[in-house]
Specification:
two-stranded antiparallel sheet, mainly alpha
């Protein structure tokens, strides 16, 4: 039997430098902002209410849920009408008012102040699906279920997949066939 999709590689323990710790902090903040912790397959993340997965056990030394929910986050960010388009609309509105554009954040700016990790009021998933335990349980994709694959390949099918809110993907829509790389199956 092939290993689950989050089991990307048997990585050797690594010592992280300051830059990589910053990248992990950014990944965790993105996951927190999207609201993946309540649906994360890692029980510690659900208990803490924020991403706390071990970066040593994830793809590219990032928390495992980053790889697990990668395509969903990309879709919510980059699809037409997604977060990127919303950000560009705000920038255009600022320019129309004659105000200067906001300064881009630096890597170190993404780390939240101590004890104040959630400074926004509603996560992306809360805005889209609500906070009911039944909705969150339906959104939680078990670690053994493969991801949906790139949304660019079939945007309509991926849109239906997201609209259904069932990220377990039982029908296998938008699934990319895994490939054998270095003796391991990778999606």
């Amino acid at each position: 039997m092939r290993p689950p999709s989050i089991f990307y590689a048997q990585q050797k323990p690594r010592t992280f430098d300051a830059r990589h710790r910053g990248v992990v902090a950014i990944a965790r903040n993105h996951q927190d902002w999207f609201g993946f912790a309540p649906i994360c397959f890692i029980p510690a993340c659900r208990r803490a209410g924020r991403c706390c997965g071990d970066a040593q056990k994830g793809r590219f030394y990032l928390p495992p849920c980053v790889g697990h929910y990668h395509e969903e986050a990309r879709y919510l960010s980059l699809s037409p009408g997604g977060v990127r388009d919303q950000h560009q609309a705000v920038e255009a509105e600022l320019a129309a008012e004659g105000r200067p554009p906001r300064q881009p954040l630096r890597l170190e700016d993404w780390a939240p102040p101590a004890g104040q990790w959630r400074w926004w009021s509603v996560t992306v998933l809360e805005a889209l699906y609500g906070t009911s335990p039944a909705a969150l349980a339906r959104l939680r994709r078990p670690p053994t279920v493969r991801g949906p694959g790139p949304w660019e390949r079939d945007p309509d099918a991926f849109g239906r997949y997201m609209a259904e809110g069932d990220w377990r993907n039982p029908a296998g829509v938008c699934r990319r066939e895994p490939v054998l790389i270095g003796g391991r199956w990778v999606e």
